[in-house]
Design brief:
mainly alpha, 13 helices, 78% helix
């Protein structure tokens, strides 16, 4: 139960910070001696991600409602900003699926290897270190161009150790978005991506006909992921506003190095 709670807490804290929650879960599960490829852990990880996406939807409930309303109105001729924003989210989601889905087997292989996860964390550290340079050189681009580049970045970030939020915010800044816009866009586009991944895993379980037994204390772990996810979103918004979030790259570099050294 203690291990289950720790995994839930780590998922909640790390999902929205630029440190790769999937990388942390993979390293912890390896440390705890858990089978990352087992149906039980796959289903448990699925529940944890669902808990954090619910916290995300609550945090951005006003923005989601506005985009849905304006995008729906656009179908009948009234084209406000939400119409274009909605299409940008759909474009990003399509590209993420196009890149991420073929890498599902590779993701499982990397999750089982602290060496590969460590390499992913160091890659994240390099991306975060480049953010200050990107923010000074980025030229404003159209929303659809931003969506294409960010969609590719989010697709690459399915690899454990590579931070989704770090990659997408960095890509948004590179394309000329302001920090506050990049923060919102990064997490808005994650909703269909995470829900889509959850749906695919659910269909897989349903078709397999196998029961997925949850570890002891999984409901408490999901509650921890939900509550700490809300907390992490608030922390991340303040860090983005103060432009201090790239310093997480130092943490990613240290953790990635430790993971590689231990694996060797």
């Amino acid at each position: 139960m203690f291990q289950t709670f720790i995994l839930g807490a780590v998922q909640g804290l790390c999902e929205f910070l630029p440190v790769s929650s999937s990388g942390h879960l993979a390293l912890l599960q390896h440390f705890f001696g858990l089978n990352t490829d087992g149906e039980e852990m796959v289903a448990f990880n699925l529940l944890l991600h669902f808990a954090t996406v619910i916290s995300l939807m609550i945090y951005f409930r006003r923005e989601i409602f506005q985009v849905l309303c304006e995008w729906s109105a656009g179908l009948f001729g009234k084209r406000d900003f939400g119409w274009y924003y909605g299409w940008a989210i759909l474009t990003t989601s399509f590209l993420t699926a196009l890149i991420g889905l073929p890498m599902r087997k590779l993701v499982n292989i990397i999750s089982a290897s602290p060496l590969y996860v460590g390499c992913g964390l160091i890659f994240t550290a390099i991306i975060l270190a480049a953010v200050p340079v990107m923010s000074n050189s980025g030229k404003r681009n159209s929303l659809i161009k931003v969506a294409i580049v960010v969609g590719i970045a989010q697709g690459i970030a399915v690899l454990p150790g590579v931070s989704r939020s770090g990659m997408t915010i960095a890509a948004s800044i590179l394309m000329g978005m302001e920090l506050s816009e990049a923060f919102k866009f990064s997490f808005m586009i994650s909703i269909p991506a995470i829900l889509g991944a959850n749906l695919l895993e659910f269909i897989k379980f349903y078709k397999s006909g196998e029961a997925a037994f949850m570890p002891e204390g999984y409901l408490i772990a999901c509650a921890a992921a939900f509550v700490l996810g809300l907390l992490a979103l608030g922390i991340m918004r303040r860090l983005v506003a103060s432009e201090k979030w790239p310093y997480f790259g130092i943490y990613c570099f240290i953790l990635g190095t430790v993971a590689i050294v231990i694996s060797l």
